[in-house]
């Protein structure tokens, strides 16, 4: 759904979750110029914009997850591409997700209940579920049941990842029941222009995504979630026009990737994906990558190079991301029609539904190609290739490889799916700092050890060492 992002003065509308919880200290930190009674539409816009910027931005996308899945690589300042991070490197997803996402959305739910507007509540539950999923996908055990209310829980407990996913599924089911296209109208929705019918599809699409997150651990429960959606008569995102995404505008409301490339030049396309797209004669290559200025060739950079080795390749002899992705108006995609079709194909392959896995897989590839304006002739040629055909004997390989391509640019989601499906098979960087391994999680923000020591210690005791190489509950193999 193509919508316009209307600039707002967000700073006076955010509910700042400061480090205090005591009433007197909270009162001391009240901004006398800020609105004491935030309007629901402002809370909604702020939560969408801040979370999308963080999800699509530098710290959690370009400087970490896109490197881990070898969509992008570093040509300068290569430490992140070698998995060398400080304990503050992964702080943005946590602090912005909780303080400017969960806190605002919890308040929106309270306002919705007070005003009797179930549609605001349903939308807030969908967005909150997405944020909680980003947090647990990245870190594992995270605050969920006590999150976002510092007046009651200054040091919220960390819930086990299984419990977080199950809580998200419960919240999304509640959201689906709350959303009513014939109910009260909402404002401030910069994803679907206040269309509740599309939010219902978004909610179900996220339910399917989370059901598959737990499918290797809890197959019966995952199957039941999908059956519940069918029993309810629910529908999913059904076209590229219904992709859940924030459509950016010109500066100062431009895409974060565009904003970075205005002043920096240290990212390139990974050799891994360039080689794969080239081998498949994939028509998305000129969309995903630009030709190197000097050679006019598509030349990716190997991941994890030493700084000197990367610099020797030359800034003008290597490929930047394609113009589509560095344009100011490039959208921050939350969930696409292509991903939804891949998810339905996997659900069918697992025996969770009676749908045709091969047909849905083919439709997913087509949806991804159409998303980037590829011609129908080129789509037919690509889908006819033997190395693109669906392999029923190894659905994880077929879906994993093609989903990895389709999720280009969506670093956090691609990172989660790569860990879950175990495809494509990626080669760790030779100069990587993890002894031949690729990260499988984010480490907790360093200040959690001092701000919430008991919660942090309990999470580490339950989950394992707070390291990039500690596998999470959903990551079975």
Key descriptive features of the protein:
mainly alpha, 49% helix, 477 residues, two-stranded antiparallel ribbon, globular, Serine Threonine Protein Phosphatase 5, Tetratricopeptide repeat
List the uncertain runs.
1-35
Mean residue pLDDT: 91
First-to-last CA distance: 37 Å
What is the spatial order of strands in the main beta sheet? Answer: 1-5
Care to count the β-strands? 6
- Counted by DSSP, the helix tally is 20
Overall outline: globular
CATH class: Mainly Alpha
Protein name: SusD-like starch-binding protein associating with outer membrane
Keywords: Signal
Signal peptide: 1-22
InterPro entries: SusD-like_2, TPR-like_helical_dom_sf
Short description:
By secondary structure, this protein is mainly alpha-helical. The protein is built from 20 helices and six strands.
Explain what this protein looks like in three dimensions.
InterPro entries: SusD-like_2 (IPR041662), TPR-like_helical_dom_sf (IPR011990). Keywords: Signal. This is SusD-like starch-binding protein associating with outer membrane. Residues 1-22 form the signal peptide. It comes from Pedobacter cryoconitis. The chain is mainly alpha-helical. It has one domain (10-252, 329-463): Alpha Horseshoe (Serine Threonine Protein Phosphatase 5, Tetratricopeptide repeat), CATH 1.25.40. 49% of the residues lie in helices and 4% in strands. It contains 20 helices and six strands. The protein has helices at residues 23-28, 40-56, 58-68, 91-115, 118-139, 161-178, 196-213, 219-231, 256-261, 271-279, 285-288, 307-313, 323-326, 337-349, 357-371, 376-383, 395-406, 411-421, 448-451, 453-463, and strands at residues 72-74, 142-143, 158-159, 244-246, 267-269, 332-335. The strands form three sheets. A two-stranded antiparallel sheet has the order 1-5. It has a two-stranded antiparallel ribbon with strand order 2-3. Strands 4-6 form a two-stranded antiparallel sheet. α5 packs antiparallel against α6 and α14 (337-349) packs antiparallel against α15 (357-371). The two termini are 37 Å apart. Residues 1-35 have low confidence and may be disordered.
């Amino acid at each position: 759904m193509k919508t316009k992002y209307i600039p707002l003065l967000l700073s006076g509308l955010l509910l700042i979750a400061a480090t205090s919880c005591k009433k007197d200290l909270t009162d001391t930190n009240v901004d006398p110029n800020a609105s004491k009674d935030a309007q629901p539409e402002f809370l909604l816009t702020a939560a969408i914009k801040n979370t999308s910027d963080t999800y699509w931005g530098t710290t959690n996308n370009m400087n970490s997850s896109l490197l881990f899945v070898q969509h992008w690589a570093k040509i300068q300042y290569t430490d992140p591409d070698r998995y060398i991070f400080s304990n503050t490197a992964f702080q943005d997803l946590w602090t912005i997700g909780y303080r400017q996402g969960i806190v605002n959305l919890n308040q929106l739910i309270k306002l919705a209940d007070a005003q009797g507007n179930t549609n605001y509540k349903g939308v807030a539950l969908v967005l909150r579920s997405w944020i909680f999923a980003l947090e647990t996908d990245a870190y594992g055990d995270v605050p969920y049941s006590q999150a976002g209310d510092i007046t009651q829980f200054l040091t919220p407990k960390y819930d086990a990842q299984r419990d977080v996913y199950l809580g998200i599924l419960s919240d999304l089911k509640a959201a689906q029941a709350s959303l009513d296209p014939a109910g009260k109208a909402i404002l401030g929705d910069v994803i679907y222009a206040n269309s509740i019918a599309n939010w219902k599809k978004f909610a179900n699409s996220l339910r399917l995504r989370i059901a598959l997150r737990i499918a290797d651990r809890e197959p019966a429960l995952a199957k039941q979630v999908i059956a519940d959606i069918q029993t309810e008569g629910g529908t999913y995102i059904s076209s590229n026009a219904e992709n859940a995404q924030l459509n950016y505008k010109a500066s100062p409301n431009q895409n974060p990737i565009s904003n970075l490339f205005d002043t920096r030049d240290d990212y390139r396309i990974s050799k891994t994906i360039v080689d794969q797209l080239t081998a498949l004669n994939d028509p998305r290559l000129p969309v995903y990558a630009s030709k190197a200025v000097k050679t006019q060739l598509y030349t990716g950079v190997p991941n994890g190079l030493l700084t000197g080795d990367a610099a020797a390749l030359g800034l003008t002899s290597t490929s930047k991301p394609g113009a589509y992705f560095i344009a100011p108006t490039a959208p921050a995609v939350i969930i696409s029609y292509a991903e939804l079709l891949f998810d339905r194909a996997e659900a069918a392959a697992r025996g969770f539904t009676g749908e045709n896995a091969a047909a849905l897989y083919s439709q997913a590839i087509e949806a991804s190609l159409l998303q980037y304006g590829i011609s129908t002739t080129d789509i037919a040629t690509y889908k006819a290739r033997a190395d693109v055909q669906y392999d029923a004997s190894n659905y994880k390989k077929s879906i994993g490889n093609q989903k990895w391509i389709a999720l280009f640019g969506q670093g956090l989601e691609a990172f989660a799916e790569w860990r879950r499906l175990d495809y494509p098979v990626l080669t760790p960087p030779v100069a990587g700092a993890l002894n031949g391994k690729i990260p499988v999680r984010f480490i907790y923000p360093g200040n959690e050890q001092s701000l919430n020591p008991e919660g942090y210690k309990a999470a580490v005791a339950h989950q394992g060492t707070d390291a990039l190489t500690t596998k999470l509950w959903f990551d079975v193999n």
